[in-house]
Design goal:
Helices cover 33% and strands 30% of the residues. The chain is of the alpha+beta class. Residues 278-364 form the Anticodon-binding domain.
């Protein structure tokens, strides 16, 4: 029932809807508002997994258009790996991040998600690969599973929902090729536990490479050349966006709302008119358009609809809450005289007075500081 209400709310406001194929979900279709959300998830993932790292990390283009069960890591990254290794002087650690299209042709019954929407047949993937010394493999694996768990919790309304599974060791590991470990990041919902990301540690030399390939991929570690270990993190921006939507859903007797984190919120600010004199509506709408344009120029998405002078104040706030908009700019009759607006925060439900000239800089600070 909870998932049904979430799907209805998201479909109502153009966030997303699952495309069904019988009893299975073929794909997740994101609407005009939902595309902002998916892009924000992707940008925050890029910031965490590529930009804000101690190691040298580079985004790469995926040469393979699809990733399926027969997908070979080395075939797709070998050329780029060689370039990055040369740039880093052949010294570890270094890494790369890639996106691509994932197609699940065959689904293991044991691996099915508790709700079909989290297990679409077609989705894109976000994948980071960190190449480290064999001596540092386990430590990097443990470190990154904690960092990735905290990344999910940072953007959550219910941080305790996200946890780590038990570490699994591959049954096919041969002692001569080293360890092969994996762990899942889990999200606990009313309908069950969902896998939202997988972190994997394995030796690059265990992938069935030809001897020439294996030698080309080796790096210098002290006085010898070794095959590096790989810490792989893989998730999907669509599944991540859905997980955050489900996490943000809040239901009470008055209204449903999406308590999305301000960094992920598809629209950062909405506009509401609270008028006594309806003849001022057109002039205030011009003020709202000017403010909206200023915010958009600073990279902040806004919602400004032509009906804001016709709907009641409460109805407009309810719509903004349902769309996950963290801030609402409330214009009143006095705004034309003193330039003061009220900035409503969905998180605190409080309003503060701000001059319209200070709104762009103040909003940037509010969104940045989280």
């Amino acid at each position: 029932m909870a998932m049904k209400k979430i799907l209805q709310l998201c479909d109502k406001h153009g966030l997303f809807k699952p495309i069904w194929c019988g009893t299975e979900v073929d794909s997740l279709k994101f609407g005009p508002v939902g595309e902002f959300l998916v892009n924000n998830v992707r940008q925050e993932w890029l910031l965490s997994n590529v930009i804000n790292r101690d190691e040298s990390f580079y985004p790469i283009q995926t040469s393979c258009s699809e990733m399926c069960s027969s997908y070979n890591v080395c075939e797709d990254i070998e050329e780029t790996y060689t370039h990055i290794k040369a740039m880093c002087g052949g010294l570890l650690p270094f890494g790369m991040a890639q996106t691509g299209f994932q197609l699940n042709n065959v689904k293991d019954v044991k691996m099915r998600q508790p709700h079909a929407a989290f297990d679409p047949a077609r989705k894109t993937f976000l994948r980071s690969l960190l190449f480290v010394s064999p001596m540092d493999g386990r430590q990097s694996f443990y470190s990154w599973q904690q960092k990735r768990k905290m990344w999910w919790r940072k953007f959550s309304s219910h941080p305790g929902r996200f946890s780590l599974s038990d570490i699994k060791e591959s049954n096919n590991v041969k002692s001569s090729k080293g360890i092969d470990l994996s762990v899942d990041i889990l999200a606990e919902f009313e309908w069950g536990t969902t896998i939202i990301e997988t972190i994997h540690l394995f030796p690059l030399g265990s992938l069935g490479l030809f001897e020439e390939q294996a030698e080309a991929l080796k790096v210098k570690d002290g006085r010898q050349y070794v095959s590096p270990y790989v810490v792989e993190c893989i998730s999907s921006p669509e599944v991540a966006a859905l997980a955050f939507l489900c996490d943000a859903f809040s239901e009470n007797s008055k209204r449903n709302s999406l308590r999305l984190h301000r960094r992920l919120a598809p629209l950062k600010a909405g506009f509401v008119m609270n008028l006594i004199d309806s003849s001022l509506a057109d002039r205030l709408l011009d003020v709202a358009k000017h403010m909206s344009r200023s915010l958009r120029q600073d990279g902040l998405t806004t919602l400004l609809l032509p009906d804001i002078s016709k709907k009641s104040h409460d109805a407009q706030l309810a719509r903004n809450d349902e769309m996950g908009i963290p801030f609402t700019i409330v214009l009143s009759d006095s705004t034309l005289n003193d330039g003061i607006i009220h900035l409503y925060s969905r998180e605190t439900t409080l309003k503060e007075q701000v001059h319209i000239s200070k709104i762009p800089d103040y909003m940037k600070l509010l969104v940045k500081n989280y």
